[in-house]
Amino acid sequence: MRRRLRALVSTRRMGQFFSVGVLGAVVDTLALLALVEVLGVAPTPAKIGSAEASICLMFVLNEFWTFQQVGERDPWAVLRRFGKSNLVRWVGAGIALVVLHVLTQQFGVWYLLANVAGIGVGFVANYVFESLLTWKVSREEPISS
C-alpha cells in the first residue's frame, strides 16, 4: 500500500500529468468551440467529439513522457494501454459532460466556462485511475519526487 501511494504522489509525475492535462483541456476547449461555433453542433454532443480528440492527444503525451519508464514498449502493449486509457478517461470525460450539461442547461452557465469546470472535476479521478489501471505505477519503482 505504501509503495502504491508513493508512486501516486510522485511530484514529478503529477506535474507532468497536470501539464498534459492542461494541454488536453486547451485542445478540448478549442475543439468544443469549433464544433459549436463553426459547425453548429449543440454543446452537449459537441463535448463528446472534443473530449475524444483531447483523450487521444493526452494518451500519446502521457505514454511517451509522463509514464515513459512504466510498462512494456511493444505495439500490442501500447495498444492495450490506449484502449484502457480511453475507457478510464471516459470516466473523467463523463463527469465533465454531466457537469457541462447541468451547468449550461440548469444554471445557464456559458458552455466554455462549464466545460473548464467539468474538466477540473474529472482531473483527480483521471490521475488516480490512469496511474493505477492504465500504466500500473504501483508495479514499478516510482519516479523520484
From TrEMBL:
Taxonomy, superkingdom: Archaea
CC annotations in GO: membrane
Cellular compartments annotated: Membrane
Transmembrane segments: 20-42, 48-67, 87-103, 109-129
Keywords, sorted A to Z: Membrane, Transmembrane, Transmembrane helix
Pfam families: GtrA_DPMS_TM
Stored InterPro entries: GtrA_CellWall_Glycosyl, GtrA_DPMS_TM
GtrA/DPMS transmembrane domain ranges (all copies): 16-135
Protein topology in the membrane: Multi-pass membrane protein
UniProt family annotation: Belongs to the GtrA family.
Protein name as catalogued: GtrA family protein
